[in-house]
């Protein structure tokens, strides 16, 4: 993404549908019911692609397996360059010992690129399974590979073709001593591949070693990380996994707007989102899990307040150097759904003042009007936590933030807390108020033609306060029944 301008990135992030969306917050009419911004056609949710290169038997597969194991709660797929070996012709098969499997031309890079492109577009692909005994990739059924958060591409010459290199977000070179590689190769090829030692040594001296020197070693310079000793290097693997986790936790919008904070996803958080987004979830469960998520967002938001250093004496008589909370605070909820966040804020900040803003949505054009406000008189001297669980078009947020600014609150003193944010709303708010902070728990796919957030969770206020028209779902669908209690 490096050299692209913000505008380029915004346009790319909204994909082909960007023209329906205007930066003044209004949205062009659409009639096909499709999202105005979709996850699949923008830069969102692009998989993190890791390339792992190195000499044969250097430990590439071992390193990949360790990374996959440590990333156990992420969807990861491994694609091997071996799967893209060209099938040998009858003539080549007859003289297989003269065939150079370590030369860049031995691989069908076009097929590899096309498979990678599909995976990056979120489509499943069938990847051939190469048979080292028959030298063919059509002996076994192909392996169906589903799109994932992380794609690991592994192979001796994976950095050789610049088109493949460009796909990678992280490049790793496994650097293992040549003698070790040869020893492992002899053991592997005589064991797994059923070859005799003379053939293995002959192939090594004729092709493997020269190709390593001529084609593989020169690609080491492209690596971001070089791992000496391969799978034995636990420190390197831990650092790599940590980096991948950080990158995965960062939504691409966060790279455009540094004041947008998406709390790092975990299975717990995704589980809570799954429950509150499920239309069959009972009101009781909706409130319970929404409250848990709100509490997380509030705690995260409070972490962005300024602090002063403070020393205290512990009961052991020791000095503990800590920090003092920011005292000049106030919450402001956007009525009505924002009121659902007040309890969590009160639970975290004893005695906090909370103001209210009521904004009326006018018809279906995505425009809103400020109806009512009740704010602390000294609000201009306070840091404001603005509460609204959903950031959709951004129009309500713009109304609310504009009012706070008119009341004298510095833009940089406003932290907007919500549970879900649509990219359109993020663009609108962050463009207009680049100094405010937004803290959210998930970024949505987009808005539908009615300007509702999708996938979303429906009318938050109605579901939280129990004023939706729908009857309670059948008992069998309730969490209580699911848990057998
Ligand atoms: N750190 C290690 N210690 C001992 N054996 C290893 C180590 N790393 C890999 N091996 C063994 O060496 C062989 C080649 O390793 P592998 O990870 O398949 O390498 P590559 O994928 O680079 O060809 C395998 O039989 C593997 O079990
Ligand atoms: N039919 C084949 C195809 C490839 N090789 C050797 O495999 C090595 C690459 O695999 P790694 O798992 O070690 O990366 C490479 O050195 C080829 O010579 C083979 O022997 N036979
Ligand atoms: Mg391997």
From TrEMBL:
<dbReference type="GO" id="GO:0005524">
    <property type="term" value="F:ATP binding"/>
</dbReference>
<dbReference type="GO" id="GO:0009507">
    <property type="term" value="C:chloroplast"/>
</dbReference>
<keyword id="KW-0547">Nucleotide-binding</keyword>
<keyword id="KW-0021">Allosteric enzyme</keyword>
<keyword id="KW-0342">GTP-binding</keyword>
<dbReference type="Pfam" id="PF00485">
    <property type="entry name" value="PRK"/>
</dbReference>
<protein>
    <recommendedName>
        <fullName>Uridine kinase</fullName>
        <ecNumber>2.7.1.48</ecNumber>
    </recommendedName>
</protein>
<keyword id="KW-0067">ATP-binding</keyword>
<dbReference type="InterPro" id="IPR027417">
    <property type="entry name" value="P-loop_NTPase"/>
</dbReference>
<keyword id="KW-0418">Kinase</keyword>
<dbReference type="InterPro" id="IPR006083">
    <property type="entry name" value="PRK/URK"/>
</dbReference>
<dbReference type="InterPro" id="IPR000836">
    <property type="entry name" value="PRTase_dom"/>
</dbReference>
<keyword id="KW-0808">Transferase</keyword>
<dbReference type="GO" id="GO:2000904">
    <property type="term" value="P:regulation of starch metabolic process"/>
</dbReference>
<dbReference type="GO" id="GO:0004849">
    <property type="term" value="F:uridine kinase activity"/>
</dbReference>
<keyword id="KW-0511">Multifunctional enzyme</keyword>
<dbReference type="InterPro" id="IPR000764">
    <property type="entry name" value="Uridine_kinase-like"/>
</dbReference>
<dbReference type="InterPro" id="IPR029057">
    <property type="entry name" value="PRTase-like"/>
</dbReference>
<keyword id="KW-0328">Glycosyltransferase</keyword>
<feature type="domain" description="Phosphoribulokinase/uridine kinase">
    <location>
        <begin position="49"/>
        <end position="235"/>
    </location>
</feature>
<dbReference type="GO" id="GO:0016757">
    <property type="term" value="F:glycosyltransferase activity"/>
</dbReference>
<comment type="similarity">
    <text>In the N-terminal section; belongs to the uridine kinase family.</text>
</comment>
<dbReference type="Pfam" id="PF14681">
    <property type="entry name" value="UPRTase"/>
</dbReference>
<feature type="region of interest" description="Disordered">
    <location>
        <begin position="465"/>
        <end position="485"/>
    </location>
</feature>
<comment type="pathway">
    <text>Pyrimidine metabolism; UMP biosynthesis via salvage pathway; UMP from uridine: step 1/1.</text>
</comment>
<comment type="similarity">
    <text>Belongs to the uridine kinase family.</text>
</comment>
<feature type="domain" description="Phosphoribosyltransferase">
    <location>
        <begin position="265"/>
        <end position="467"/>
    </location>
</feature>
<comment type="pathway">
    <text>Pyrimidine metabolism; CTP biosynthesis via salvage pathway; CTP from cytidine: step 1/3.</text>
</comment>
<dbReference type="GO" id="GO:0005525">
    <property type="term" value="F:GTP binding"/>
</dbReference>
<dbReference type="GO" id="GO:0044206">
    <property type="term" value="P:UMP salvage"/>
</dbReference>
């Amino acid at each position: 993404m490096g050299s692209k301008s913000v505008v380029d990135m915004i346009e790319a992030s909204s994909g082909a549908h960007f023209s329906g969306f205007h930066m003044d917050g209004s949205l062009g009419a659409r009639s096909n019911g499709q999202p105005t911004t979709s996850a699949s056609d923008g830069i969102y949710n692009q998989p993190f692609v890791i390339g792992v290169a190195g000499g044969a038997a250097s430990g590439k597969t071992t390193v990949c397996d360790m990374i996959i194991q440590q990333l156990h709660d992420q969807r990861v797929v491994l694609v091997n360059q071996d799967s893209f070996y060209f099938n040998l012709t009858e003539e080549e098969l007859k003289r297989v010992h003269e065939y150079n499997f370590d030369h860049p031309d031995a691989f069908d890079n076009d097929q590899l690129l096309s498979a990678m492109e599909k995976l990056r577009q979120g489509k499943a692909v069938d990847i051939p399974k190469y048979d080292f005994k028959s030298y063919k990739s059509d002996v076994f059924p192909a392996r169906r590979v589903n799109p994932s958060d992380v794609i690991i591409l592994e192979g001796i010459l994976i950095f050789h073709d610049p088109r493949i290199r460009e796909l990678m977000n992280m490049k790793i070179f496994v650097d293992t001593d040549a003698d070790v590689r040869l020893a492992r190769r002899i053991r592997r090829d005589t064991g797994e591949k059923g070859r005799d030692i003379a053939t293995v040594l002959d192939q090594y001296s004729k092709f493997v070693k020269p190709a390593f020197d001529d084609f593989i070693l020169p690609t080491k310079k492209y690596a971001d990380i070089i791992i000496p000793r391969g799978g034995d290097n636990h420190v390197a693997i831990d650092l790599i996994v940590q980096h991948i986790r950080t990158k995965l936790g960062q939504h691409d919008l966060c790279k455009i707007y540094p004041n947008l904070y998406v709390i790092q996803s975990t299975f717990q958080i995704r589980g809570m989102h799954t429950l509150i987004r499920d239309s069959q979830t009972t009101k009781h469960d909706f409130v319970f899990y929404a409250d848990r998520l709100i509490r997380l967002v509030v705690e995260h938001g409070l972490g962005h307040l300024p602090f002063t250093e403070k020393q205290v004496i512990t009961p052991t008589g020791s000095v503990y150097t800590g920090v003092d909370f920011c005292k000049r605070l106030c919450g402001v909820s956007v009525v009505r759904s924002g009121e659902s966040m007040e309890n969590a804020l009160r639970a975290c900040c004893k005695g906090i003042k909370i103001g209210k803003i009521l904004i009326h949505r006018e018809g279906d054009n995505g425009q809103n009007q400020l109806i009512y406000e009740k704010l602390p008189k000294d609000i201009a001297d306070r840091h404001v936590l603005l509460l609204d669980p959903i950031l959709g078009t951004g129009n309500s947020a713009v109304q609310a933030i504009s009012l706070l600014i008119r009341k004298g609150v510095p833009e940089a003193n406003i932290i907007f807390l919500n549970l879900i944010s649509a990219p359109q709303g993020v663009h609108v708010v962050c463009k207009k108020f680049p100094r405010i902070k937004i803290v959210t728990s998930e970024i949505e796919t987009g808005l539908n033609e009615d300007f509702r957030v999708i996938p979303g969770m429906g009318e938050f206020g109605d579901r939280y306060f129990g004023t939706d028209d729908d009857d309670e779902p059948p008992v069998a669908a309730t969490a209580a029944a699911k848990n057998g209690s």
